[in-house]
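Pilot study result, target chain (83 residues):
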Amino acid sequence: MDRLDSVIVTEYVEFDTPADKIVADPGVSAEFTGKVNSKLPAVQRVDPATVNWRLLTLRKRGEDNGGLPRLERCYNGRKGKPR
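Predicted structure:
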């Protein structure tokens, strides 16, 4: 699972879409799973349900514990936190 988790974290940052949105939309989930699977050897490829499960698990773990980092969001045309 360590290899899968590291690929998911890397692709998550590049994909720049919140985990909830990836999991909630089957089309987005399939696209994200395709990107994850493109970085894995053929014998280690996984289905969207597995990727979604790991994605939510990593989100719950938090960045400080090896989970997903927070994405930098735009608020009214500026990066960072809302005022």
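One observation from the pilot: The chain has a mean pLDDT of 88. A full batch analysis is planned for the follow-on phase.
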